[in-house]
Amino acid sequence: MRSSDTAQIFFEDVRVPSKNLIGEEGKGFTYQMLQFQEERLWGVATVLTPLETIIQETIDYTRQRKVFDQSVLHNQAVHFCLAELATEVELLRSLLYRTVAFYVEGNDVTKFASTAKLKAGCLAREVTDSCLQFWGGMGFTSEVLVSRFYRDLRLMSIGGGTDETMLSIICKYMETLPSK
Fold it and tell me: Residues with catalytic annotation?
């Protein structure tokens, strides 16, 4: 993955002096779980600008790219699709703002943060895939952002909890998970 320095690390026979211990011993997983909502909200916030950039660059490119003697943007399917994508980005922004407001008030935002992260991951795939299609072969070159974002924004559906994990959390709050 080019956008992340993700790698496997192994800790074998490691001892941490008690003076270097952060928090209580054995509570690392709990501490990680407590910060997930902030991580998920950060992920949603950081994906908004790239999505807007991709849409705007696609508008600019399709406006100047000619097919059959007219711009690609002239095609109703293209400009309607771009309008729908821009609308979805604004809806995601609204969900983020609402969730952050609840968080600042001290509320549990697990369901909302999971919903926003799920939507951000799905929307990142939809925007990059749709926009790349409008770029044609040029969309696969390393010179254009849509190609990089197509590859790198895919992480939004994996890091900080997969889409499937977000769905499980949402289902738990909806009380629709099957009982054991």
Answer: 39
Question: How many whole angstroms separate alpha carbon 123 and alpha carbon 136?
Answer: 20
In angstroms, the CA 52 to CA 128 distance is: 11
Closest CA to 3 of 143, 147, 163: 147
DSSP 53-95: HHHHHHHHHHHH-EETTEEGGGSHHHHHHHHHHHHHHHHHHHH
Rounded to 5°, angle at Cα 114 from 151 and 116: 65
Distance between CA atoms of residues 96 and 85, nearest Å: 17
If one counts every other C-beta atom within 10 angstroms of the C-beta of residue 36, the result is 17
Rounded Cα–Cα distance for residues 58 and 61 (Å): 5
Q: Are 92 and 120 in contact (CB under 8 A)?
A: yes
pLDDT in tens, the chain (180 residues): 465 677 888 889 988 888 998 888 888 888 887 788 999 999 999 999 999 999 999 999 999 999 999 999 999 999 999 999 999 999 999 999 999 999 999 999 999 999 999 999 999 999 999 999 999 999 889 889 999 999 999 999 998 899 999 999 999 999 998 887
> CA end-to-end span of the chain, whole Å?
37
